[in-house]
Amino acid sequence: MMRRKRKLGFPQAFYTSGHSMPTPFCTIHYMNRFLNCEKLVDIKYTNLPPGKTMKQFSRIYKLPPKEDIKIEGKIRPMEVKDAK
After folding, report:
1. What is the pLDDT of residue 11?
2. Which of 40, 47, 50, 57 has the fewest CB neighbours in a 10 Å radius?
């Protein structure tokens, strides 16, 4: 990510870590949404929760049908000016 950031000319970036830092200088709350649970478990990005089957784990993170997704506001393709 650092190489990609520098190559694209971004002056700043956000990084996350699973390790604790001695003095927090910033806090953030975020949630991961797994899109391909089976692959992420296979490559050991995450673990299958104890007592859950792969089918149950996948069902938890299943995306809703397109018809149920309501988007408010305008959506447009990202442009170069958005990166600055």
Report:
1. 73
2. 50
pLDDT of residue 18: 67
- The CA distance from 58 to 38, in Å, is 7
**Structure tokens that stand for 17 in this block:** 């870590």
Token couple for 8: 């694209």
Residues in the chain with pLDDT < 50?
Answer: none
Task: Go through the chain and tell me how many residues it has.
Answer: 84
Do 47 and 41 touch, CB atoms closer than 8 A? yes
Reported pTM = 0.47
| Residue linked to tokens 């997704």 | 69
Rounded to whole angstroms, the Cα distance separating 46 from 40 reads 6
Give residue for tokens 């002056």. 11
Cα–Cα distance for residue pair 8/4, rounded to 1 Å:
6
